[in-house]
From TrEMBL:
It comes from the Eukaryota. This is F-box domain-containing protein. It comes from Armillaria ostoyae (Armillaria root rot fungus).
Length: 211
Protein backbone atom coordinates (compact mmCIF):
# COMPACT_ATOMS: atom_id res chain seq x y z
CA UNK A 1 0.00 0.00 0.00
CA UNK A 2 1.56 3.31 -1.06
CA UNK A 3 0.69 6.98 -0.60
CA UNK A 4 -0.55 8.86 -3.62
CA UNK A 5 2.46 11.13 -3.27
CA UNK A 6 5.23 11.60 -0.77
CA UNK A 7 7.87 14.20 -1.56
CA UNK A 8 10.16 15.67 1.06
CA UNK A 9 8.09 17.33 3.74
CA UNK A 10 4.69 16.68 2.11
CA UNK A 11 2.59 13.53 2.08
CA UNK A 12 -0.72 12.96 0.31
CA UNK A 13 -2.82 9.84 0.82
CA UNK A 14 -5.75 8.65 -1.24
CA UNK A 15 -6.38 5.18 0.07
CA UNK A 16 -9.24 2.76 0.54
CA UNK A 17 -8.13 2.48 4.15
CA UNK A 18 -5.81 5.37 5.03
CA UNK A 19 -5.98 4.43 8.71
CA UNK A 20 -3.96 1.23 8.23
CA UNK A 21 -1.16 3.19 6.55
CA UNK A 22 -1.05 5.83 9.30
CA UNK A 23 -0.54 3.05 11.85
CA UNK A 24 2.80 2.12 10.26
CA UNK A 25 4.09 5.55 9.22
CA UNK A 26 6.63 7.76 10.96
CA UNK A 27 7.52 11.18 9.52
CA UNK A 28 9.41 13.50 11.85
CA UNK A 29 10.14 16.12 9.15
CA UNK A 30 6.60 16.24 7.75
CA UNK A 31 5.27 19.79 7.24
CA UNK A 32 2.24 19.22 4.99
CA UNK A 33 -0.31 16.40 5.07
CA UNK A 34 -3.28 15.74 2.79
CA UNK A 35 -5.56 12.92 3.90
CA UNK A 36 -8.29 12.00 1.42
CA UNK A 37 -10.74 9.21 2.21
CA UNK A 38 -13.11 7.67 -0.29
CA UNK A 39 -16.71 6.62 0.30
CA UNK A 40 -15.67 3.16 1.52
CA UNK A 41 -13.94 4.71 4.52
CA UNK A 42 -16.64 7.31 5.13
CA UNK A 43 -18.22 5.07 7.74
CA UNK A 44 -14.96 4.59 9.62
CA UNK A 45 -13.09 7.01 11.84
CA UNK A 46 -9.40 7.65 11.29
CA UNK A 47 -9.27 9.86 14.40
CA UNK A 48 -7.18 7.55 16.59
CA UNK A 49 -4.67 6.50 13.87
CA UNK A 50 -4.17 10.15 12.86
CA UNK A 51 -3.70 11.30 16.45
CA UNK A 52 -1.30 8.42 17.13
CA UNK A 53 0.65 9.17 13.93
CA UNK A 54 1.07 12.85 14.82
CA UNK A 55 2.11 11.99 18.38
CA UNK A 56 4.55 9.32 17.20
CA UNK A 57 6.11 11.49 14.49
CA UNK A 58 6.38 14.64 16.63
CA UNK A 59 6.35 16.64 13.40
CA UNK A 60 5.85 20.41 13.27
CA UNK A 61 2.95 20.24 10.82
CA UNK A 62 2.10 23.58 9.14
CA UNK A 63 -0.43 22.48 6.49
CA UNK A 64 -3.30 20.01 6.86
CA UNK A 65 -5.94 19.13 4.25
CA UNK A 66 -8.40 16.69 5.74
CA UNK A 67 -11.54 14.81 4.73
CA UNK A 68 -13.06 14.32 8.18
CA UNK A 69 -15.60 11.63 9.11
CA UNK A 70 -15.11 11.41 12.87
CA UNK A 71 -16.71 13.39 15.69
CA UNK A 72 -16.10 17.11 16.20
CA UNK A 73 -14.67 16.44 19.67
CA UNK A 74 -12.04 14.10 18.22
CA UNK A 75 -11.17 16.62 15.51
CA UNK A 76 -10.72 19.38 18.09
CA UNK A 77 -8.53 17.10 20.20
CA UNK A 78 -6.28 16.45 17.20
CA UNK A 79 -6.11 20.15 16.26
CA UNK A 80 -5.22 21.10 19.82
CA UNK A 81 -2.11 18.95 19.42
CA UNK A 82 -0.90 20.78 16.30
CA UNK A 83 -0.13 24.33 17.53
CA UNK A 84 2.26 24.81 14.59
CA UNK A 85 -0.52 24.56 11.99
CA UNK A 86 -0.79 27.62 9.73
CA UNK A 87 -3.12 26.34 7.00
CA UNK A 88 -6.11 24.08 7.61
CA UNK A 89 -8.57 22.80 5.02
CA UNK A 90 -11.42 20.65 6.31
CA UNK A 91 -13.94 18.86 4.12
CA UNK A 92 -16.74 17.98 6.51
CA UNK A 93 -20.12 19.09 7.85
CA UNK A 94 -19.21 20.54 11.26
CA UNK A 95 -21.49 21.69 14.06
CA UNK A 96 -21.71 24.71 16.38
CA UNK A 97 -19.34 23.15 18.91
CA UNK A 98 -16.50 23.38 16.39
CA UNK A 99 -17.05 27.07 15.66
CA UNK A 100 -17.46 27.97 19.33
CA UNK A 101 -14.24 26.18 20.32
CA UNK A 102 -12.33 27.64 17.35
CA UNK A 103 -13.35 31.19 18.26
CA UNK A 104 -10.38 31.74 20.56
CA UNK A 105 -6.99 31.40 18.85
CA UNK A 106 -5.31 31.14 22.24
CA UNK A 107 -6.64 27.60 22.76
CA UNK A 108 -6.63 25.93 19.31
CA UNK A 109 -4.41 26.67 16.28
CA UNK A 110 -2.87 29.95 17.49
CA UNK A 111 -0.82 30.33 14.27
CA UNK A 112 -3.66 29.67 11.83
CA UNK A 113 -3.32 31.99 8.82
CA UNK A 114 -5.49 30.20 6.24
CA UNK A 115 -8.75 28.39 6.97
CA UNK A 116 -10.93 26.64 4.39
CA UNK A 117 -14.10 24.71 5.14
CA UNK A 118 -15.57 22.90 2.16
CA UNK A 119 -18.65 20.97 3.20
CA UNK A 120 -19.05 17.96 0.94
CA UNK A 121 -22.18 18.36 -1.14
CA UNK A 122 -22.83 14.63 -1.29
CA UNK A 123 -26.18 13.35 -2.49
CA UNK A 124 -26.55 11.52 0.84
CA UNK A 125 -26.23 14.76 2.81
CA UNK A 126 -28.71 16.56 0.58
CA UNK A 127 -31.25 13.75 0.69
CA UNK A 128 -30.95 13.59 4.49
CA UNK A 129 -31.62 17.32 4.67
CA UNK A 130 -34.66 16.93 2.46
CA UNK A 131 -35.96 14.20 4.79
CA UNK A 132 -35.71 16.24 7.95
CA UNK A 133 -32.08 16.24 9.15
CA UNK A 134 -31.60 19.75 10.45
CA UNK A 135 -28.62 22.03 9.77
CA UNK A 136 -27.01 24.14 12.50
CA UNK A 137 -29.39 26.53 14.25
CA UNK A 138 -28.06 29.90 13.08
CA UNK A 139 -25.05 31.66 11.62
CA UNK A 140 -23.91 33.39 14.81
CA UNK A 141 -21.28 30.84 15.88
CA UNK A 142 -19.70 30.73 12.41
CA UNK A 143 -19.57 34.52 12.06
CA UNK A 144 -18.28 34.98 15.62
CA UNK A 145 -15.45 32.56 14.95
CA UNK A 146 -14.37 34.23 11.71
CA UNK A 147 -14.60 37.77 13.14
CA UNK A 148 -12.68 36.80 16.27
CA UNK A 149 -9.90 35.12 14.33
CA UNK A 150 -9.56 37.99 11.88
CA UNK A 151 -9.48 40.59 14.64
CA UNK A 152 -6.59 38.71 16.24
CA UNK A 153 -4.43 39.68 13.26
CA UNK A 154 -3.09 36.19 12.50
CA UNK A 155 -5.81 34.73 10.27
CA UNK A 156 -5.55 36.26 6.79
CA UNK A 157 -7.56 34.02 4.46
CA UNK A 158 -10.98 32.40 4.96
CA UNK A 159 -13.00 30.31 2.52
CA UNK A 160 -16.17 28.73 3.94
CA UNK A 161 -18.78 27.23 1.59
CA UNK A 162 -22.13 25.43 1.53
CA UNK A 163 -23.26 26.10 5.11
CA UNK A 164 -27.02 25.95 5.69
CA UNK A 165 -28.66 27.30 8.83
CA UNK A 166 -32.18 27.12 10.21
CA UNK A 167 -32.29 30.85 10.89
CA UNK A 168 -30.43 33.71 9.23
CA UNK A 169 -31.24 37.05 10.87
CA UNK A 170 -30.92 40.47 9.25
CA UNK A 171 -28.09 41.21 11.66
CA UNK A 172 -26.24 38.09 10.54
CA UNK A 173 -26.77 39.05 6.90
CA UNK A 174 -25.18 42.46 7.54
CA UNK A 175 -22.24 40.89 9.34
CA UNK A 176 -21.78 38.43 6.47
CA UNK A 177 -21.79 41.28 3.96
CA UNK A 178 -19.11 43.09 5.95
CA UNK A 179 -16.99 39.95 6.14
CA UNK A 180 -17.30 39.22 2.44
CA UNK A 181 -15.93 42.62 1.39
CA UNK A 182 -12.77 41.86 3.38
CA UNK A 183 -9.89 40.85 1.09
CA UNK A 184 -9.28 37.08 0.98
CA UNK A 185 -12.48 36.32 2.92
CA UNK A 186 -15.44 34.35 1.51
CA UNK A 187 -18.15 33.03 3.84
CA UNK A 188 -21.20 31.44 2.20
CA UNK A 189 -24.15 30.83 4.54
CA UNK A 190 -27.71 30.31 3.34
CA UNK A 191 -31.00 29.85 5.12
CA UNK A 192 -32.28 26.29 4.92
CA UNK A 193 -35.34 25.66 2.78
CA UNK A 194 -36.76 22.70 0.89
CA UNK A 195 -36.40 24.66 -2.36
CA UNK A 196 -32.71 25.30 -1.67
CA UNK A 197 -32.06 21.62 -0.96
CA UNK A 198 -33.93 20.52 -4.08
CA UNK A 199 -32.03 22.99 -6.24
CA UNK A 200 -28.73 21.67 -4.90
CA UNK A 201 -29.81 18.08 -5.51
CA UNK A 202 -30.60 18.96 -9.14
CA UNK A 203 -27.31 20.84 -9.46
CA UNK A 204 -25.43 17.85 -8.04
CA UNK A 205 -27.13 15.44 -10.47
CA UNK A 206 -26.49 17.77 -13.41
CA UNK A 207 -22.82 18.04 -12.47
CA UNK A 208 -22.48 14.26 -12.38
CA UNK A 209 -24.19 13.99 -15.76
CA UNK A 210 -21.90 16.62 -17.27
CA UNK A 211 -18.85 14.81 -15.90
Amino acid sequence: MQPRSHAGDHAEFFLPYASSFLHSMHAQNLKSLTLICNYIEAYLSHASPLADFLHRSKCALTNLDLFWHGSVDKLLTILSRIPTLESFTCRSDLNMVFYERMKSPSTILPRLRTFSLQIRESITRLVNLSRGTRPIADATSVIDMVESRLSGGVLQSVDIRYIMVDYLSEGSKRRLSNLNVTPCVAVEIEKFSDDLVQSRIHRYIDAIGAW
